[in-house]
Structure formats: structure tokens, C-alpha cells
Amino acid sequence: MSLHPTIPASKVEGTAVYNLDGDKLGSIDDLVIDKRTGHVRYAALEFGGFLGIGTDRYPLPWHLLRYDTTKDGYVVNLDRDLLTDAPRYARGTEPPQTDDYGRTVFGHYGFDWQS
Amino acid sequence: MSLHPTIPASKVEGTAVYNLDGDKLGSIDDLVIDKRTGHVRYAALEFGGFLGIGTDRYPLPWHLLRYDTTKDGYVVNLDRDLLTDAPRYARGTEPPQTDDYGRTVFGHYGFDWQS
């Protein structure tokens, strides 16, 4: 077993995302990385209409996502209430690639942007 | 100034890569990330025929690449000798996404895969 399996970023796009009950919520639309460190900061999720959420992209702090080898996808513990007023942007648009925006996204989910 | 400027992984593809003299070597074809930690492990470079290297992809440990905001691209200190027998794979193919392959790539450039 490979302890550090890798995957091309181009293939992460489209990887399924599940909730804790194993329901498929949607998939990853893109990864957003720190230009210098190369760490993925957040993943942009598209929910495919789940919960009537439509096609907006929801940036989620990377550490919310746990990779599950048995599912070959990511699992996330997402409460619907958290999504109601969560940061989002329309498909085809791009949010600011700044610390301010990162802080907004991380803050919403209770994470520290610099950590 | 943003201390942690971000960029969508989908946009890193195509970002220019320069040598220390400022010559453009080629561009990034893809990023390869650790599925679990979300850290970019290496970048696949295509040299666009530079040095007669053709269209093979050269995986380079991420830490060899330094992001240069003035160039809006990455700078790498690459000795031609290091490239002669460097790990590479043909365009359109994919190397094994395993620790073994990572070790081979990192080892070639003097890096420790687990570090």
C-alpha cells in the first residue's frame, strides 16, 4: 500500500464528494493552491443541484475533506446550516485570490487562514 | 500585498517556468498532489522542445520551483546534466502514482520523498 498516493490535480477535478452517510453531495470543480508553498488551501465544490443549491461553487477549506480510499472520493462532514450562508461564487466566475478572501472562506468554517 | 496569493490549480497549468538567467524553459503541464495532505508533491514540466528535449513530461519536486511574482511564473535552477537522465514520461501517458515513483523522482534531484 502506498502511504502517499498521489493524483494529478487535473484528475482531482471531478472527484466525488460524500457526506458522512455516504451520500454523494457533488464533486470537486477545482483546487486552489498557495502559489508559493504549493499547499492546497481550498477545494471548489459543485453540488450539482443537491439541496437545491444549484451550480454555484463552494470553496471549502481543504482540511474539511478527508480522502477515503474505499470510496475513491472525499468525505466531508457538512452541516446544511453551514452551507446556507457559506461563501460561494457563480460557475464561470473567479473569486479574489487574496488573503482577504481566504480568511473569509476559512473563517466561515472556523479555520484559521494562516495555520 | 497578499502574503499567500492563491491560484486555481487549473490555471497553474500553462504557467511559464524560467531558469536563473530568465530564459523561458517551458511551462507546467500538471501538478501532482498528495491525495491526503493536499500538498503539491511535484509539477510536471513540458519543455516545448527546449534543449531538444521534445514533448516528454519531466516531474520536478515542487520545492525546486520558486514562484517569482515579477515574472508571474516559476524559476528553477536546473542543470542540464540533471535533465539528461531525469525521470520523464511521454505526453498523454501517466506515471505510477505511488511512493516508489515519488522516491525515484525526488531521489534524482536529491530530495527525500517523505520530507
TrEMBL record, chains A, B:
<dbReference type="InterPro" id="IPR011033">
    <property type="entry name" value="PRC_barrel-like_sf"/>
</dbReference>
<protein>
    <submittedName>
        <fullName>PRC-barrel domain-containing protein</fullName>
    </submittedName>
</protein>
<dbReference type="Pfam" id="PF05239">
    <property type="entry name" value="PRC"/>
</dbReference>
<dbReference type="InterPro" id="IPR027275">
    <property type="entry name" value="PRC-brl_dom"/>
</dbReference>
<feature type="domain" description="PRC-barrel">
    <location>
        <begin position="7"/>
        <end position="83"/>
    </location>
</feature>
